[in-house]
Amino acid sequence: MAIPDFLLQKLQALDSGSTFAGRLPRITSSSGTVYFVKSGSTREVEQYEGEAQSLIAMGRNAEGLVPRVLDYGVSESGHPYFISEYKDFSGLSNDSGSILGKRLATELHTSQGSKGFGFAVPTFCGATKQRNGWFETWEECFSQMIGDLLKTLEERGNYTKVCAKGRQLSDEVIPKLLRPLKIEPVLCHGDLWSGNTGTLPNGQPIIFDPSSYYGHNESDFFIEYHKHFPKSEPVNHYELRAELYELYHYLNHTVLFGSGYAGSALQKMELLLKAEL
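RESULT FIELD:
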């Protein structure tokens, strides 16, 4: 896609006197700087803002771990736009993955939310909107996240068993697993998996495509993480909490991609409902 005029004006404001070439999202300036540039539909305004604010928040505490946002907003015609550094990267390696685990523990997850659990604006896990807002407890925050997925599946129909088990889990398991936690809300990426990570040419990790919230650090960790950040008490619930946090993504995949993930979500819910808590 060629550079729309309104984006060209935004780039010229960032890089005065330069000319620009390329096609979205990779735009090169005559000054030698390479930019990541994109624009969306009028329906994607919240999605663009959520991504930008997530990256900005993460960049404050973990400089260089995420692309630096240079500009974002909405055009006069109502289309959202986003401009950041352009990063060349390869897949995450064992070495860069170890560094990532350490940087999450010692940098990103040291950013505590002064307003509680949640986030100031909606964020999006894939195409799924996380309403966010602020909550006094992680139990309340996570319950909304799970509840919104279940509501979406209920509205679509064909997921009666998944939704019934999900409501039972929300009533019986989430309070028992999350209420005993004595934790502070920390800034999380929100959708941390191998597809949203990479290795820069200097060997350092990079993460992107966030759906951030201030939550429990254990919902957002990577290999060797617990060398640098201890498991939360009660430690004997650690594996079950990991299953619960993974369940969120199985339910979200069911919302996004259909019934192929429903069976895996059911298995996790049944495991959690049978656990001795």
